[in-house]
Design brief:
By secondary structure, chain A is an alpha+beta fold. Chain A has four helices and five strands; from the N terminus they run E-H-H-E-E-H-H-E-E. The chains are: A alpha+beta, B alpha/beta. At the A-B interface, helix 2, helix 3 and helix 4 of A face helix 2, helix 3 and helix 4 of B.
Chain lengths: 169, 120
């Protein structure tokens, strides 16, 4: 697993889940456990949990297409006040079905949009920053959250191929 | 551990209440739709209360289910209200704009008393 942890970053957890329905709940529980001592206020923890669950569900359903033998990799890093969670699938470039268009509830109620398609919208609205990058088949969504009052984090350098606990954040 | 969605339906003056428990996700579709059918059986009340007090998890697919119930209710000229949402899910109702279409009450007792109208 490519790590984002660096000299200023501490890996709180790294694990994989099989691409099976419901495993997003496993991912969110393990991330919540990992950041329990990070100082993330409870309300922001709930937001991070929702974002992790949605990103993991997208990775399972749209990235790995529900093939249980292909894992979804999850890594949790703390760098100062920043909590960074990366979720990686092997689906390459993909746009979750129905999520390319900004959800519009009025249009959904009128039958002009599908009722589904809330995942990316929820993720974007739950965390301080979201980045997506693709490296061959590996598609990673990076979620960033300040472990303090709400705010936008500083820009991050690109992920590097560092050791399990070291890379440049 | 996953907690499957459960629903209990009962009538109050002027409304039918669907008390949900567990997780509202894609697997909840059958339970939620059956509960709605039961709530409006025989052309029942014009207002359906969705109570989330015992719901611990709602994901994007669950939001879509709620949207589908709301769309159906609107097409039948029924009103949907909600109660018992945690602060987190209340915020999700706000950002998805569900709260523009579904009046949200703090708890079921408040919803029922408001729906019953002022005491004579």
């Amino acid at each position: 697993m490519t790590s984002l942890a660096g000299p200023d970053g501490r890996r709180l957890a790294a694990f994989s889940v099989a691409s099976e329905p419901g495993n997003e709940r496993v991912a969110l529980a393990r991330v919540a456990e990992a950041v329990a001592a990070s100082g993330l206020p409870p309300a922001r923890l709930e937001k991070l949990k929702t974002a992790v669950a949605e990103a993991t569900m997208n990775a399972i359903e749209h990235g790995n297409r529900g093939r249980a033998e292909i894992p979804v990799d999850v890594e949790v890093i703390q760098a100062g006040e920043q909590i960074i969670v990366t979720i990686t699938d092997l689906g390459g470039e993909h746009e979750p079905e129905g999520q390319a268009e900004e959800p519009d509830l009025a249009r959904k109620l009128d039958g002009e949009q599908r009722a589904r398609g809330w995942g990316l919208f929820l993720i974007r609205n739950m965390v301080d920053a979201m980045q997506v990058r693709t490296d061959g088949p590996r598609r990673t969504i990076q979620l960033s959250m300040r472990a303090g009052p709400a705010g936008k984090p500083a820009a991050y350098p690109a992920a590097s191929e560092g050791g399990p606990d070291e890379a440049g954040l | 551990m996953k907690q499957a969605c459960e629903a209990a339906v009962h009538a109050v003056p002027g409304a039918a209440v669907i008390e949900l428990a567990g997780e509202v996700d894609g697997a909840a579709a059958g339970v939620l739709n059956a509960a709605y059918e039961q709530a409006v059986d025989g052309g029942g009340p014009g207002t359906v209360v969705l109570d989330f007090a015992r719901v611990g998890y709602i994901n994007s697919t669950g939001i879509a289910l709620i949207v589908s119930v709301l769309a159906r209710a609107r097409s039948e000229r029924r009103t949907v209200v909600a109660s018992g949402l945690s602060d987190h899910y209340r915020e999700i109702f706000d950002i998805t704009r569900l709260s523009d279409f579904i009046q949200v009450f703090g708890d079921l007792d408040t919803a029922v008393s408001q729906l019953a109208g002022p005491a004579a």
